[in-house]
Automatic annotation (TrEMBL):
This is Transmembrane protein 33 homolog. The chain crosses the membrane at residues 123-142, 154-172, 258-280. Residues 70-115 have a biased composition (Low complexity). Belongs to the PER33/POM33 family. One of its GO terms (cellular component) is membrane. Keywords: Membrane, Transmembrane, Transmembrane helix. It comes from the Eukaryota. The keyword DNA damage does not apply. It comes from Ilex paraguariensis. It is found in: Membrane. The keyword Membrane applies. Residues 68-115 are annotated as: Disordered. It is a multi-pass membrane protein.
Length: 342
């Protein structure tokens, strides 16, 4: 018996010691769990879902026992005498109609914490839906240029605000406003997708360049969030089933395709900014900062897989041409690669 339990004990210790705060997949996993807020604040509930996360992504052999909530969600079992009196009281209350008043009171008091939890998702959905409409207006060819440019900036501003709100909801604010606490908080969010989206939007909303191509990653991200929210909250709606169910299912089943398309657009924008350096609209600082962002996207766990795949395809296409027609570029490219992988 002891020999059978020792491996699972070690696995449970490993799951308890795992650094969940620095794993961006844990933040996404926890944000997609729909439980009442009063249970989400309990340590035993959080530990249970951490073990589920560890079993799914780290160690599939870990055995996670089902969580028992009967002892916490129900009151203590009454004694025999009190149970008999309670049953009599319940019979009388049903006859007098007091049960209806009691149930009405409970239904009025319970939705408050749940509605507070849903408000966060509803706010993000509203902002993302607004960004989608504004981004479509920005790329619409028949729209006047002034209105199109304004919609272009509003799309980036809306996505930046949504990313900041998501970061605050998932990670909160620094524990203290000193250099050490801010640095610890910054290290925990710098590799997350929301932070990368915020920096991406910030680099374009402050620029005088209007590259409509830059809206592709925003549209991909917004479509994914909107489709997920609609499918979770409006699946029983007849309007959703008639008009939006098929597009939402397609978006959710093709998130990998959208992520690859977004990565290709982000890398293509880097080369467009380099080309813009030879025009009167050049912005050397924006180009340098954007390539720093591309480097971060290449190494961040949330986007590394897609960016590395795109860069490998670019390398397989470009490297033979450079070795054949422009061998003098080998030395500067190797220098850039050392900086890139550093």
């Amino acid at each position: 018996m002891g020999e059978d339990e020792d491996p699972q004990k070690l696995k449970r210790l490993g799951a308890a010691a795992y650094d969940y705060d620095n794993d961006p997949k844990w933040a996404d996993y926890w944000s997609n769990i729909l439980i009442p807020p009063h249970m989400g604040s309990r340590s035993d509930v959080v530990d249970h879902f951490k073990r589920k996360f560890y079993q799914r992504y780290i160690d599939p052999d870990l055995v996670v026992e089902p969580m028992s909530i009967s002892s916490t969600s129900q009151p203590a079992k009454p004694s025999a005498s009190s149970s008999s009196s309670t049953s009599n009281g319940q019979t009388r209350s049903r006859n007098s109609g007091s049960t209806a008043r009691t149930s009405g009171t409970s239904t009025n008091s319970t939705p408050n914490p749940t509605s507070l939890r849903w408000d966060r998702h509803t706010v993000q959905f509203s902002v993302n839906a607004w960004v989608f409409v504004v981004a479509v207006l920005a790329i619409f060819p028949l729209l006047p240029r002034t209105l199109s440019n304004r919609a272009y900036r509003l799309a980036f501003m809306g996505t930046a605000c949504s990313s900041l709100y998501s970061l605050y909801s998932l990670y909160g604010k620094p524990r203290a406003w000193n250099m050490q606490a801010v640095q610890v908080w910054f290290q925990s969010v710098i590799a997350t997708k929301d932070f990368l989206h915020f920096i991406y939007c910030l680099s374009f909303v402050t620029s005088h360049l209007y590259l409509k191509f830059a809206l592709i990653p925003i549209l991909c991200c917004v479509l994914e969030h909107v489709a997920k929210f609609l499918r979770r909250n409006f699946s029983r709606s007849s309007l959703y089933r008639k008009y939006l169910e098929e597009p939402s299912v397609w978006v959710e089943s093709n998130t990998t395709t959208l992520s690859i398309l977004s990565s290709q657009a982000e890398i293509g924008l880097g080369f467009l900014l380099i080309i813009s350096l030879f025009s009167w609209q050049r912005n050397i600082l924006q180009t340098f900062m954007y390539w720093q962002l591309l480097k971060l996207m290449y190494h961040a766990p949330a986007t590394a897989g897609y960016h590395q795949s795109v860069w490998s395809k670019i390398g397989m296409t470009v490297n033979p041409l450079i070795h054949r027609y422009a061998p003098f570029l080998t030395t500067p490219i190797s220098t850039i690669q050392r900086w890139w992988f550093r």
